[in-house]
Amino acid sequence: MSSKLKYLLPILALAFWSCGKTDTPGGDPVTPVDPPVEPVDPVDPPEPPEDANSIRVLTYNLLATSGRRTEMTLDKCRDAFGKIIRSADADIMCFNELDATFASELPSIVGESRYKWDISNPNKVENGSLVYYYSNGFAYDASKFTLVSRGMNWYISTGTYTSSMTEAKNYHLPKYRTLVWCCLKHKFTQETLYVVSTHLPLSNDGEFPPYYIGLAHRVCATALGELARSVSAPCILAGDFNSSSEEDDENSSGHSIILERWTDAYDVLKDSGELGSYYLTYNGTLSGSSKKYYYESSVFTKNHPERRIDHIMYKNGAVTKLVPKSYSTITTGYVYAGKTFCPSDHLPVIVEFEISK
Questions:
Q1: CA-CA 20 to 30 A from 310: which of 56, 98, 100, 203?
Q2: What is d(CA 251, CA 249) in angstroms, rounded to the nearest whole number?
Q3: Cβ burial, residue 5 (10 Å; 0-12/13-18/19+)
Q4: pLDDT digits (tens, 9 = 90+) for 213-253
Q5: Do the Cβ atoms of 136 and 239 come closer than 8 Å?
Q6: Using only C-alpha atoms, what is the Rg of the chain?
Q7: What is the pLDDT, as a whole number, of residue 298?
Q8: pLDDT for 246
Q9: Is 178 helix (H, G, I), strand (E, B) or coil?
């Protein structure tokens, strides 16, 4: 035996006995053994809640922070906003007049981890980029819905809508009015639902000549009719429609165009006798806070149907239907200098729907 092999044999033997073994604290080598697998009983999927077919929808024009008077700055009404939105207990929420401040702070103001937020949608084309200007957005309860798709479209002067920033720049309406939409899948019913959040123009919005008064509103209404025809699934349309005015009814023709394709949940409940008696008289959604009034529902909203400009409308799908079950608003306010104000110049609107076939 060569001298080299003589010295290698002990080393090879050690390597062989060590292979696949680990040292215990006592020093004896042991072979690793997987722990026994405990039998697991099959777990049934959780039962859907009793209200699985119910959807609560909120729409709320927040009043952009740039348009607020001293007594309505966000630091004064932050808590009121949180109380209002939490108490609505909505599954889907649509918002108008979002700006950079609301886009940043609204989730923390509400403080509900169940919501997924899509409220950062700057819409005005300025020097080749987008800035916030009467922006729209939404949020949804992620325990009940899965987001399938979403988008933002500009209304344009041809009577339709576009997702092209170039077209928006060339053919936009005054204030770059938009609709922000999402497609949601309901986790319990597996139904697909579209939701559209929008803010329509005033009758005198923008640069049209006086004899075109209400034209911008009619252009948007025509686009919403096109949208209704293009979607076969059930769809909810919500927002500030500026559907009438305290002084005139110059947007009535545009509103009539919308109602050719969409159904107002308020009207359905009223016609069926299921609208709460409060909302037969206190039927405005303008709060009065933006006017010379501080908020008093007994003064500003009572018997003023022309002040109901925030709507939740819907269209049924080819198979799946939406049935409105209730309508409500929330009048929570806050006190400043001895007077009570709403945190916005609009009241939120909440409608509960039932999904049926």
A1: 100
A2: 6
A3: exposed
A4: 788 888 999 999 999 999 999 999 999 999 876 555 778 88
A5: yes
A6: 29
A7: 86
A8: 57
A9: strand
As a whole number of angstroms, the distance between CA 214 and CA 249 comes to: 9
pLDDT in tens, 6-28: 444 344 333 333 444 333 334 44
Look at residue 21 and tell me if it is in a domain. no
Give me the pLDDT at residue 28, please.
45
Our count of domains for the chain comes to 1
Of 242, 287, 252, 274, residue with least CA distance to 353: 274
CB 214 within 8 A of CB 253: yes
Contact indicator for 250, 310 with CB cutoff of 8 Å:
no
Q: What pLDDT score does 245 carry?
A: 64
270 part of a folded domain: yes
CATH number of the domain where residue 228 is located: 3.60.10.10
pTM for this model (two decimals): 0.85
Residue 48 lies in a domain: no
Structure-token match 């939701």, residue found? 195
Q: Which of 203, 310, 298, 218 is nearest to 265 (CA)?
A: 310
Residue 310: which domain range? 54-356
- Other beta carbons within 10 angstroms of residue 117's beta carbon come to 15
Mean pLDDT, all residues of the chain: 86
E strand map for the chain:
22-23, 29-30, 54-61, 92-98, 115-118, 124-126, 129-131, 135-141, 145-156, 160-162, 178-186, 192-199, 235-240, 263-264, 310-315, 321-329, 334-336, 339-341, 349-356
Is-contact 143 135, C-beta < 8 A?
Answer: no
Residue type at 53? N
In-domain check, residue 113:
yes
